[in-house]
Amino acid sequence: MNRVAITGLGVVSAIGSSAPDFWNSLENGETGIKVITNILTEGLVNKMGAEVKGFDPAVHFDPKKLPMYDRFSQLAMVAGRQAIADSGLKFEGELAEQTACIMGTGVGGQNTLEESYTKLINLGGALGAQSGANVRVHPFTVPRLMANAAGCQISMENNILGPGYTIASACASATHAIGTAFHMVRSGMMTAVVTGGSEACLTFGTLKGWEALRVVAPDTCRPFSLGRQGMVLGEGAGCLVLEEWEHASKRGATIYGELAGFGMSSDAKDITTPDAGGMARAMKSALRDASLNTGDVHYINAHGTGTRSNDATETKAIKIAFGDTAPPLSSSKSMFGHALGAAGALEMVATILAIKNQIAPPTISFVEKDPECDLDVIPNTARKMKIDAAISNSFAFGGLNAVLAVKRA
After folding, report:
1. What is the tally of helices (H) and strands (E) in the chain?
2. 383: pLDDT confidence band, cut at 50, 70 and 90?
3. How far apart are CA 322 and CA 315, in angstroms?
4. Fewer CB near the last or first residue (10 Å), C or N of the chain?
5. Cα–Cα distance, 347 to 385 (Å, whole number)
């Protein structure tokens, strides 16, 4: 069983499009949740979102290749470039064959899907079925919208010749992807893995779908706070390079931390309602896998969506898993929103940087303590503290729970 080093980080998010900028916003409690501007919001009840601002694809991609990339792939590829450059790895020869690319996404190419359906309905449906048969969508519609597109593009751009696939498990997608990548390196199957998650879900149709669930906040995301009104959707991508520890050490790589454990569980109860027992089982599993006692964990990056049910249930689950030794926790979603299948990757990067900097980021927009969420949620201001080990929680629709455990290098 190999030790697994984290040697590269990449981020494109609503609060920063590089790991240093991302961390600066986290530490200072800066929000990326604002009125949506990238799409028309007429007809939306809730107009708030955590957009990646100022992202110009033309700056990052060859104009001849750009038509192949949905926005979720664009964000992933840029984050992937950052992480690979940060690691210093070159995927050549045997290393190219011994490197995998495992990514996560919840909904994939939603921009492409919505653009195509809008064109078909507006130009075809309005004129009748017969004329609609002559309406054509973009020739690259299928390779752009498929859920595995982002991971495939990262592999092709970087000559990654080992296994490549994408995991879709709703809001746990990226955490499942990172955990799978961890297993590959720890077992010796792979020397390195580029992994993470990407989502670009701020489209009109997607937002209307979430509105219909009645879990979206009208103003901002206030995890664990009394009076919280729900989640706020975000977009972005987070990528990590995982590497066999000895391989990283021998080449003198910068090691951000050790990915030490991964836990999973299924509630097997309800498609949308969370279960404290299932969450707790995943946390306990991650601790066992990492050979950590509850008292060894100094910080939890919580799933913390800002909905009444999720935050109260996660609090109960942490108490079940940790008993009286529950450490401080915070929700990064209060700053960069809920990026669905990318959330776990962004939160994992936040957790790693918290350990590296020995600072726990805050839960911002916190107003008043909720008796149902009575743990230390690091309200509004970052906290300098000892963090030798931490966990990052992801709990998804379908009752799918995934937890990663990280140790200080």
Report:
1. 15, 14
2. very high
3. 11
4. N
5. 18
